[in-house]
Automatic annotation (TrEMBL):
<keyword id="KW-0934">Plastid</keyword>
<keyword id="KW-0813">Transport</keyword>
<feature type="binding site" description="axial binding residue">
    <location>
        <position position="36"/>
    </location>
    <ligand>
        <name>heme</name>
    </ligand>
</feature>
<keyword id="KW-0150">Chloroplast</keyword>
<keyword id="KW-0479">Metal-binding</keyword>
<dbReference type="InterPro" id="IPR011054">
    <property type="entry name" value="Rudment_hybrid_motif"/>
</dbReference>
<feature type="transmembrane region" description="Helical">
    <location>
        <begin position="285"/>
        <end position="304"/>
    </location>
</feature>
<feature type="binding site" description="axial binding residue">
    <location>
        <position position="60"/>
    </location>
    <ligand>
        <name>heme</name>
    </ligand>
</feature>
<keyword id="KW-0732">Signal</keyword>
<keyword id="KW-0793">Thylakoid</keyword>
<feature type="binding site" description="covalent">
    <location>
        <position position="56"/>
    </location>
    <ligand>
        <name>heme</name>
    </ligand>
</feature>
<dbReference type="InterPro" id="IPR024094">
    <property type="entry name" value="Cyt_f_lg_dom"/>
</dbReference>
<dbReference type="GO" id="GO:0005506">
    <property type="term" value="F:iron ion binding"/>
</dbReference>
<dbReference type="GO" id="GO:0015979">
    <property type="term" value="P:photosynthesis"/>
</dbReference>
<dbReference type="InterPro" id="IPR036826">
    <property type="entry name" value="Cyt_f_lg_dom_sf"/>
</dbReference>
<dbReference type="Pfam" id="PF01333">
    <property type="entry name" value="Apocytochr_F_C"/>
</dbReference>
<dbReference type="InterPro" id="IPR024058">
    <property type="entry name" value="Cyt-f_TM"/>
</dbReference>
Length: 319
């Protein structure tokens, strides 16, 4: 039995996936509805598609803003901080999978240049350790250490997610050069509208399937609301609206096909942006400092020489 148990774990990466989800769940209150970045990790080898879009947009259909803060330039083997800002109105509540209302969760994916990776804890300053203690940052996959994923985490306390990054050294990593590199980030708040298998979540606005008259509305807090619509031919069609959604219609209303039956419950969304960062060669900095010093010294000597020349001219005129 022990050998079979070990072999099952060794044959699949699913154990690590489940462990990752479990750890992230510990960081999020049980009353929240969770986003599932692990879905993207399983379905997509790379989260950034060829057209530049980050795959989170396939499930989080609403567009929202996201901000990325990073230094303009960094040095080899330097640990630097990158901050992803995911702003939203914290007073708003989202509909959970159970139909109840709860706070929003957030998540982010940061696509770094090749060679960049998550900084080890032993290289973090006390300030960076404090900033990153509330989130669990993981690489996107064992082969893509330069892509980092966070979430779901509680949105009220994590509208700013701090990523400690270790810059590569071109002297030891021949894939990297002293160059300007792009950083790509995607951030979502709240639940998505589509599951990875293509099915809709209950975080959607429900539409009428036919045109007709609403003849009955039967509310059930557990199973949802049953809306009966009679078409022009006298046929009755029943639609089930999941629990927790607020209706826009009432009995005896006339509705058209594809007319919204509920208020749009989605208060979240996804956004992405990018930024450039320069991996700076220290020799260039030393050279620039030396050049600036020599230039400044030359200018000072020129001014001193000019003053001496003016004194000689004044002495000759007095003579």
């Amino acid at each position: 039995m022990r050998k079979e148990w070990r072999s099952k774990i060794g044959k699949s990466f699913d154990f690590l996936v489940i462990a990752s989800i479990a750890i992230q769940q510990l960081l999020v209150p049980a009353t929240r509805a969770n986003a599932f970045p692990i879905y993207a990790q399983q379905a997509y080898k790379n989260p950034r598609e060829a057209n530049g879009r980050i795959v989170c947009a396939n499930c989080h259909l609403a567009a929202k803003t996201v901000e990325l803060e990073a230094p303009q330039s960094i040095l080899p083997d330097q640990v630097f901080e990158t901050t992803v800002k995911i702003p939203y109105d914290t007073t708003k509540k989202q509909i959970l999978g159970s139909g109840k209302k709860g706070g929003l969760n957030v998540g982010a994916v940061l696509v770094l240049p090749e060679g960049f990776k998550l900084a080890p804890k032993d290289k973090l300053s006390a300030e960076l350790k404090a900033k990153t203690s509330s989130v669990y940052i993981t690489p996107y996959s064992p082969t893509l250490e330069n892509i980092l994923v966070v979430g779901p985490v509680a949105g009220e306390k994590n509208q700013e997610i701090h990523f400690p990054i270790l810059a590569p050294n071109p002297e030891t990593d021949k894939r990297v050069h002293f160059f300007k590199y792009p950083l790509y980030v995607g951030g979502n708040r709240g639940r998505g509208q589509v599951y990875p298998d293509g099915q809709k979540t209950n975080n959607n606005q429900y539409l009428s399937s036919i045109s007709g008259k609403v003849i009955n509305i039967e509310v059930n807090e557990k199973t949802g609301t049953k809306v009966s619509i009679q078409d022009t031919s006298g046929n009755n069609i029943e639609q089930i609206v999941p629990a927790g959604l607020d209706l826009l219609i009432s009995k005896n209303d006339i509705v058209r096909v594809d007319q919204p039956l509920t208020i749009d419950p989605n208060v979240g969304g996804f956004g992405q942006t990018d930024k450039e960062i320069v991996l700076q060669n220290p020799a260039r900095i030393y050279g620039y400092v030396a050049f600036a010093f020599v230039t400044m010294l030359t200018q000072v000597l020129l001014v001193v020489k000019k003053k001496q020349f003016e004194k000689v001219q004044a002495a000759e005129m007095n003579f």
